[in-house]
Amino acid sequence: MASIREIVFDTETTGFYPEKGDRLVEIGALELVNHVPTGRTYHQYINPEREVPEEVVKVHGLTTEYLKGFPVFAKVAKEFVDFVGDDGILVAHNATFDIKFINYELQKLGYAEYSWDRVVDTLEIARSKFPGQRNNLDVLCKRFGIDNSARTFHGALLDAQLLAEVYLELLGGAEPSMNFAVSEKKQAISGGVEKVNRVYREPRIFSLSEEQVEAHKDFLKKNIKESLWLADEVKEEAAG
Fold it and tell me: Considering the domain 5-175 in this protein, what is its CATH number?
């Protein structure tokens, strides 16, 4: 069966509208194969060749002065396209926003745009699973118990890493596959039977008085003529 290759990614920009002059300032991405992180990542700051509005800097912390030292998108586009590859499925949170910017920049440079059949929007998945609730990345991290304490600013690579964890939880959680792998290893070691270690408990001893024993025998004789619990001698007496 063919492997499923996914690129979980996030972007930071100067605003909301590429057609009005807003530009990418950061891309962060990581690779999943069959929903398992491979360790391959892509991260790039980008010179937007324009001023970054102060209110946007408050969101991602990337100033105009800082970004001037990085290449423009045209210089890094091929590296990103190569990382995604021909088979990569693009996974993003509110993918409409991110894909709009990526495709706008790619189209300007003569690259093929990414079609929507190659895109997974985790926001849409979250909305279908948790209708009527807030489903931004911070809320989803809290809902799934994912540590996002390092997220003081929006950062593309960190957000992509958090989103990958959220995505796996939205798919049903990473634990089943991890437990399956551990279980296979245990069974291989134990010859196909998984050993379960249980806590040893001392047997409990119940002492009965002679009166209690006789009362029990009397009950059995009167009420259960063919009782399996009667001692042999009691059975003979009951039959006679």
Answer: 3.30.420.10
